[in-house]
């Protein structure tokens, strides 16, 4: 454990920020100030997570904790996802599965963290007993 993977990039434009905000979070900072909402940032994080080649093993997300929005995401920002695999253990109730904890960081083109949170993923084991 402790390995970090990085995937991206994803460029955010003004039209996307406004379109998302109009539908899901129509607050002035998003529509007039052109900063992505927190739920928009999380949606981008989820999209980038799907670029990591582990999709066949993922069964479900078990939860997100300690979600933090560190800096605004603005038009023109290029975002990258860094995933650090922190711990793993076998499920006690379903022996063909494991529980993995991760730290997610969404970073911009300057390397600044704009979003972070911990996550728990239920995954299929490569070689179940």
Description:
The chain is of the alpha+beta class and 129 residues long. The chain has one domain: Hotdog Thioesterase (Thiol Ester Dehydrase, Chain A). Helices cover 21% and strands 43% of the residues. It has three helices and five strands; from the N terminus they run E-H-H-H-E-E-E-E. A five-stranded antiparallel sheet has the order 1-3-4-5-2. The two termini are 21 Å apart.
**For the residues shown, what is the average pLDDT?**
92
Q: Calculate Rg over CA atoms.
A: 16 Å
Globally, the shape reads elongated
**What is the fold named in CATH at topology level?**
Thiol Ester Dehydrase, Chain A
State the fourth-level CATH superfamily: Hotdog Thioesterase
Find the structural class using helix and strand composition: alpha+beta
Number of domains: 1
The H/E string reads EHHHEEEE
Strand content: 35-45%
Give a brief rundown of this model.
With 129 residues, this protein is of the alpha+beta class. It has helices spanning 14-24, 28-31, 38-49, and strands at residues 4-11, 58-69, 78-90, 97-107, 113-124.
Strand and helix layout:
Elements: E1 4-11, H1 14-24, H2 28-31, H3 38-49, E2 58-69, E3 78-90, E4 97-107, E5 113-124
Antiparallel strand pairs: 1-3, 2-5, 3-4, 4-5
């Amino acid at each position: 454990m402790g390995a970090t993977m990085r995937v991206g990039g994803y460029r955010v434009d003004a039209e996307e920020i406004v379109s998302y905000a109009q539908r899901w979070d129509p607050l002035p900072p998003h529509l007039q100030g052109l900063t992505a909402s927190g739920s928009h940032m999380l949606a981008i994080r989820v999209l980038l997570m799907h670029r990591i080649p582990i999709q066949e093993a993922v069964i479900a997300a078990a939860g997100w904790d300690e979600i933090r929005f560190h800096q605004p995401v603005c038009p023109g920002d290029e975002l990258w996802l860094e995933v650090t695999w922190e711990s793993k253990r076998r499920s006690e109730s379903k022996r063909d599965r494991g529980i993995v904890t991760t730290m997610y960081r969404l970073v911009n083109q300057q390397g600044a963290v704009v979003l972070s949170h911990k996550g728990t993923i239920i995954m299929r084991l490569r070689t179940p007993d």
